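Researcher: Good morning. I'm working through a list of sequences from a screen, and I'd like to move beyond sequence-only analysis. For each chain I'm collecting a predicted structure so we can compare shapes side by side. This is the next one on the list. No need for commentary yet; just the structure.
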Amino acid sequence: MPSPTPRPADPAVPIVLKIVIAGGFGVGKTTAVGAVSEITPLSTEEYLTEAGTQVDSLAGVEAKQTTTVAFDFGRLTLTDSPVPLELLLFGTPGQDRFGGLWYDLARGAVGAVILVDTRRLTSSFTAVSFFEDIGLPFVVAVNEFDGAHRYHPDQVRDALQLPAHVPVVTCDARHQNHVAGVLLTLVGQALKSAPADFTHPVPPTALQDVS
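Model: Good morning. Structure tokens for this chain:
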């Protein structure tokens, strides 16, 4: 009996991709997800407490009042891109004590955006090391906070000791177009690493990790 001919992929059906938004404490992950999400984002922010100041340094982010304790979730559909995309965005908690969650959130992801704050660049090393260790493609996005010194991306690359193939871009995490541009840069980076993953829409069984 001849094998059935596979039906061609419907170009109108977007490819579903899971993306992680990571970075240190207070770098703007929740802000970025909220700025770009087409749905009301899921947020697990809680108020900072006096007890938490013993483990979470507020140096440089003294005005911060809340923090993510599980993850943020948002969705962005890009129908005008060369291939229609539906991006499922998972923002990580920034504190090192929540590091175990990062493995769960990274499962099934095609790549990660690492947001950095140049005023507290050392808080970014944990995220860079994590994604290098697990082999997940990533880009570094410098969130240009008001009043922060502006550095050239190559200076940030040198400071974080990043290889030449890792994109370093600048953005304002409050602006939808900026964040969307960073996400497309990541998709391009992931495409270079695993082109086969982008040739067909993701089958439903592959979405179990992002449901």
